[in-house]
């Protein structure tokens, strides 16, 4: 994931690649996609990745559920940054 990239954009890129692999005959499970996404997130997601890995069965976690969790975290992070920037003015 790129540092300036949103969760939705990154998931879109990953799913395009995963679907291309599936179209070529590769058997790739949602669990494998979830693991790949968790390994490739930026450092600002480290805390939420640890929480997800500790509290959920990664093999049973769907891509949509992961995206929802990460989007909520991203929104909180963005909101916090916005408030801090407003206070600096």
TrEMBL record:
PANTHER family linked to this entry: OS04G0629600 PROTEIN (PTHR35317)
Protein name: Retrovirus-related Pol polyprotein from transposon TNT 1-94
Organism of this sequence: Linum trigynum
